[in-house]
Structure formats: C-alpha cells, structure tokens
C-alpha cells in the first residue's frame, strides 16, 4: 500500500519508534492506540486526496485573471446533512446523492440548451434534435474529460 511493505506498515502502527533523550526506542501500542493511528492516517490521506482533487478541479475550471484563493469550482449541494442519514449503508446514501446531482446536472444542461435553442430561433438558424443531442453529449464529455 502506497509503496510501503506490509510488515513495515504493521511495525509502524504496532511498535512505533520514538526518541527518548538521545536514543530511539520502539514503543509498544495496545489495540486502541493502533486503531487511533490507523484512523488518523486514513483522515490524513482523505484530506490530502480531497485537497488534491479540489486543486485539480480549480486548475481545470480556472478563468485567467480571476482571484480564487478560497474557491471550489465544483457544484456543492448544501443541505444534504439534513436528509435522513439512517440508511443501512453509506454506499446507498452515496448513490442517492449522486442520482440527485445527476438530476440537477441534467436540469442545468437542459436549461442551457433551451437558451441556445432560442438563440437559434432569434437568428433564424435551422434547429433539429441532432443539435440537442450534440450539445448534451458535448457538455457531458467536457465534465468527464475534466477529471481525466
């Protein structure tokens, strides 16, 4: 995991090295201390991956000349924390949130395409369903490509 041998990982959690005075010693850990260490490492990895992902999203969505020191260029659905969290499995909640986000994405794209449709009408351009499919597919591909 992460390029570290399993036995090195195990030893680091169960018998970490600490400096006492001028020498290094291996300190014994009980089960609870090991679990705290594993949890802390999990949280640290999650935080680093999250910050990396936000940075990559911001780089992808960046507009030149706009100061965005404290900006996440990703849709954040506020209020999910008030929904029922008594679901039997976190993955089920994850799926429900993603279905809702997909619905919002479709709604936003549909409204955008509707505006484009009216621009076509105003300028007397020909419109057919192929344009709708083209614009919808293009927007979805842009979203997917931004994470590649």
Continuous helix count: 4
What's the Cα radius of gyration? 25 Å
Class derived from helix and strand content = mainly alpha
Mean pLDDT, as a whole number?
A: 73
Distance between the termini: 23 Å
Number of strands: 2
Regions with little confidence, pLDDT below 50 for 5+ residues? 141-148
Number of domains: 2
Note the beta-strand portion.
5-15%
| H and E order | HEEHHH
Shape: elongated
Please outline the major beta sheet.
2 strands, antiparallel
**Assembly category:** single chain
Order of strands across the widest beta sheet? 1-2
Helix content: 55-70%
Written account of the structure:
The protein has 148 residues and is mainly alpha-helical. The protein has two domains: 1-73, Four Helix Bundle (Hemerythrin (Met), subunit A); 75-148, no CATH class. It has helices spanning 6-14, 31-61, 90-122, 129-146; strands at residues 17-20, 23-26. Helix 3 (90-122) crosses helix 4. The longest helix is centred in the last third of the chain and has 33 residues, at 90-122. The protein is elongated. The relative contact order is 0.06.
């Amino acid at each position: 995991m992460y390029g570290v041998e399993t036995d090195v990982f195990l030893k680091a959690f169960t018998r970490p090295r600490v400096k006492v005075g001028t020498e290094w010693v291996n300190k014994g850990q009980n089960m609870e201390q090991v679990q705290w260490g594993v949890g802390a490492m999990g949280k640290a990895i999650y935080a680093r991956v999250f910050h990396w992902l936000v940075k990559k999203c911001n780089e992808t969505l960046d507009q030149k000349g706009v100061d965005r020191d404290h900006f996440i260029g990703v849709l954040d659905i506020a209020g999910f924390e008030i929904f029922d969290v008594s679901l039997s499995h976190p993955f089920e909640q994850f799926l429900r949130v993603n279905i809702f986000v997909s619905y919002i994405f479709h709604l936003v794209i549909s409204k955008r395409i509707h505006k484009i449709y009216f621009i076509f009408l105003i300028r007397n351009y020909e419109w057919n369903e192929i344009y709708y499919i083209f614009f919808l597919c293009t927007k979805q591909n842009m979203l997917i490509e931004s994470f590649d």
